[in-house]
Specification:
single chain; alpha/beta; six-stranded mixed sheet; 6 helices; 6 strands; 26% strand; globular; binds guanosine-5'-diphosphate; binds magnesium ion
Length: 170
């Protein structure tokens, strides 16, 4: 018989990297060009993962987020998606500090996360190579996905499902 489970997922990353677009793409298979950047939303989504019914609660964080709020979100989450924009080097540089902050909040537990490089459709404006993304993911000991919320390329679906699997393995 299928087991029921709930997995709390929080999505982090610099403003403008496409967190909301990614979450909406995952949930609706559509792309929404403009999404209020100040809007923080939580979505509930049911999926069948390896014969289990899993309810994901997905928190799409939004700036401006103060430290206390961020800490609350990090405590709440069980699995994390850290997103950067392949056309924005600064957003890539913010990944490691975010991970360190997560480690601090979750210690002594290991943080369960995936790294996502978004906007892969904007190849002409790329500032962060795929190899750099892979290397960082190795350092963070996590899975890495390059994708585009805009075109749907890359494995957005697989990324969220894999994160759920990992949370449930722990
Ligand atoms: P958030 O602040 O991280 O939630 O970012 P948003 O989801 O609001 O997206 C910020 C901007 O980037 C919007 O103008 C989106 O249309 C755009 N955007 C998001 N994802 C992609 C993508 O994969 N490709 C392209 N070309 N633009 C994107
Ligand atoms: Mg947003």
């Amino acid at each position: 018989m299928a087991k029921c489970a709930e997995v709390k997922i929080a999505v982090f990353g610099r403003a403008g990297v496409g967190k909301s677009a990614l979450v909406v793409r995952f949930l609706t298979k559509r792309f929404i060009w403009e999404y209020d950047p100040t809007l923080e939303s939580t979505y509930r989504h049911q999926a069948n993962i390896d014969d289990d019914v899993v309810t994901m609660e997905i928190l799409d964080t939004a700036g401006p987020e103060d430290l206390l709020q961020r800490e609350g979100h990090m405590r709440w989450g069980e699995g994390f998606v850290i997103v950067y924009d392949i056309t924005d080097r600064g957003s890539f540089d913010e990944v490691m500090p975010l991970k360190n902050f997560l480690d601090e909040i979750k210690k002594p537990k290991n943080v369960t996360l995936i790294l996502v490089g978004n906007k892969a459709d904007l190849e002409h404006a790329r500032q962060v190579s795929t190899e750099e993304g892979e290397k960082l993911a190795t350092e963070l000991a996590c899975a890495f996905y390059e994708c585009s919320a805009c075109t749907g390329e890359g494995s957005i679906h697989e990324a969220f499902h894999e994160l759920c699997r990992e949370v449930r393995r722990r």
